[in-house]
Amino acid sequence: MLDVTSNSQTVVSMQCYTTHRDPDAFPEPEEYDPSRWLRKGRKVDAMNELFMPFSKGSRACLGINLAYMELKVTVATLLGRYGVSLASDMQAHHMDMRDHFLIFPAGGKCNLVFHKV
Question: What does 8-60 look like in DSSP terms, one character per residue?
Answer without folding.
Answer: --------HHHHTT-TTTSSSTTS--GGGGGS-SHHHHHHHHH--TT--GGG-
